[in-house]
Amino acid sequence: MQILAISTIFEGNNLLRLLSGLFVTIEISVISIFIGTVLGLILGSLWTTGNHLIQPFFKLYLEIFRVVPTIPLLFLFYYIFPRNLNINLSSMQVSILVFSLWFAAEFSDIVRGAIQSISKNQRENAYTIGLSMFQTYRYVLVPQSIPNILPAFINLSTRIIKTTSILLLISVTDVITVGQQIIEANAQDTLVPLLIYALIALFYFLINFLLSQLSQRLERKFRKYE
Questions:
Q1: 2-224 — its CATH code?
Q2: Would you say 219 and 150 are in contact if contact means Cβ atoms under 8 Å apart?
Q3: Closest by alpha carbon to 166, among 78, 37, 64, 101?
Q4: Residue 47: how many CB atoms within 10 A of its CB?
Q5: Which residue of 64, 116, 138, 184 shows the fewest CB atoms closer than 10 Å?
Q6: For residues 62 and 89, what is the distance between their CA atoms, to the nearest angstrom?
Q7: Distance from the Cα of residue 144 to its chain's centroid
Q8: What one-character DSSP code corresponds to residue 46?
Q9: Contacts 24+ apart (CB under 8 A), 185-191
Q10: What's the CA dihedral at 123, 124, 130, 134 to 10 degrees?
Q11: pLDDT of 225 over the 60 cut
Q12: Where are the domains of the chain?
C-alpha cells in the first residue's frame, strides 16, 4: 500500500506538475519580494524625513495591510475591484500585486525603524559635508541600516513564501493547488494526501532554510565592517 502511494508521485507527470507549481510559487514570491523591497525602501525612507503631510498616508497604508488579513485582500483585488473598475487582472497578477503591497507595508516599517535607530549625528555630518538628502540616504543612512534590516527582511520573505499557500483560493496553479489536484485524483488511497503534503512541506522547508542560511552569512559579512 505504501509503495503504491509513493508511486503516485512518479506516475505520469505528477512530479513535473508539482515542480511546475513550485516554480509558480517561487516566481510570485520573488517578484513580490523584489517590488515590495523597492517600494518599502522608498516609503520607509520618506517616512523618516519628518514630512507631516505624507506620514498620515504611510500610517494608514501600513495599518490597512497590517490589520486586514491577506485572504480578504486577495478577494477584494481579484473579485471586487476588477468588476467595479472594469479591470481584467489574472490571478497571478493579483497575487503579485497584493503580496507586493503587503511586503512593502511591512518592510517600510522595518526600514523606518532601522534608519531612525542611526545616530542623528550621521545625518547632520552628511549635510555638513554638502551631501543632499538623497545622497545622505543613499550613501550614509541606508547602508548603515542594512545589518539591522537584514534579519527582519529574511523573516518577512519567509512569511511571504509560506503565505502563498492560500493562493489556491483564487485559482493560482501553485504547488498547493497541484498537490490538491493529485490528491483528488487519487482519493481512494488514504496515504496519498500524507505523502503529497509531506513533499510540499519539504519544498517549503528547503526554500526557507536556504534563505535562513543566506541571511546568516550576509549578516556575518556586514557585521565585519561595522
A1: 1.10.3720.10
A2: yes
A3: 78
A4: 22
A5: 184
A6: 24
A7: 23
A8: H
A9: 186/8, 189/1, 189/4, 189/5, 189/8, 191/1, 191/2, 191/5
A10: 30
A11: no
A12: 2-224
